[in-house]
Amino acid sequence: MEKSNGKYFLVIVAIVAVVAIVSLFMVGGNKVVKVSDSSAAEPEATSDLAGQAISGAKMADLQFDTSGNAAIIKIITIDNKQLKLDLKTSAPNYTYYIWGDALEGVDTKMYLQGDICDGEMLTDCKGATFLVSAGQKKAAHLIKISKIDATDKKISFDDLTYGCATNDKSFKLGYADYYALSCGAGTIYLGFTDDGNLQFKQLGEGYSKDSSYVEIQTRSKLFVRFENTKQGEVQPYWAGNSLFEGVTFHK
Question: H-type helices in the chain, by residue range?
Answer without folding.
Answer: 14-23, 49-54
